[in-house]
Design a protein that fits this description.
elongated, 11 helices, mainly alpha, 269 residues, MetI-like fold
Length: 269
């Protein structure tokens, strides 16, 4: 199980760290080498400006992963906060339930595009848009778990002993919700990456000067008819491989959590 978990994680981190050392200056123009097919000197070929597509793809992957991690963390934290808020009283519970139903009833991609467009796009606009459209599902799961926990005898005893809400949240709720939080994060992360690439491809996401995968795919569309297939194939394939690697790690990690229930001491210490 540990081998199944560590190998995808190692490959995922290796690609991310490799892309992190790249600078924009390394993706320089070289008109002499433009429109070259994949070769030993340029594994992913070059584009219409002579830029190495391997370096551009790696830089785009770094941006996508960074955005996905930030979005997944913020969405998971927002879901936890709202689910805890729903347990305070019936008024907050009804308000959170109404918000969940509202966002789940809206077309996901359309809502994401509208939020990103209103906020002016860019990294901040995309992150906020993804965060505000990816929290409802995990919030609904966490809320259901918390409502069930509230009726547990040990939680009721804590109330009778005068323990406050945040004490119960730290010692009773968070240890129980830890697997759900990790599962929520691992599910949101690949969705965030793919949705960011989608809206950026459509022109509503990251700005054109950013080396994002969506920008690369969007720019390559006008050159596919001339036979430059590598401009879209390799960036798209790399994005897919990164998502699959993370999903393999996530599945192994979730199985590991189900087998090991010793995570509660992190919150009780």
């Amino acid at each position: 199980m540990k081998k199944n978990m560590m190998i995808p994680l190692f490959l995922f981190l290796a690609i991310y760290l490799l892309s992190s050392v790249l600078t924009k200056d390394m993706i320089s123009l070289d008109l002499i080498s433009k429109n070259q097919a994949p070769s030993l000197s340029h594994l992913f070929g070059t584009d219409w400006l002579g830029r190495d597509m391997l370096l551009r793809t790696l830089k785009g992957i770094q941006l996508s992963i960074t955005l996905g991690i930030v979005t997944a963390l913020l969405s998971t934290f927002l879901g936890l906060l709202l689910s805890l808020l729903a347990t305070l009283n019936q008024y907050f519970d009804k308000m959170v339930s109404w918000l969940i139903d509202l966002f789940l009833s809206l077309p996901h991609l359309v809502t994401l595009i509208l939020i990103s467009f209103v906020l002016g796009g860019g990294f901040k606009g995309v992150v906020i848009g993804l965060m505000l459209t990816h929290w409802p599902a995990i919030t609904r799961v966490l809320r259901a778990e918390l409502l069930q926990l509230e009726s547990m005898p040990y939680v009721q005893i804590s109330k009778q002993l005068g323990k406050g809400f945040w004490w119960r949240a730290r010692h009773h709720f968070l240890p129980h919700l830890f697997p759900q939080l990790m599962v929520g994060f691992t599910l949101i992360f690949p969705h965030a990456i793919l949705h960011e690439a989608s809206i950026t491809f459509l022109g509503f996401g990251l700005s054109a000067e950013e080396p994002a995968i969506g920008i690369i795919l969007s720019e390559s569309m006008q050159y596919l008819s001339s036979g430059m297939w590598w401009l879209a194939f390799f960036p798209g394939l790399t994005l897919l491989v990164m998502v699959i690697l993370f999903q393999r790690f996530a599945n192994a990690f979730q199985n590991h959590l189900e087998r090991d229930r010793s995570y509660g001491h992190y919150f009780n210490s």
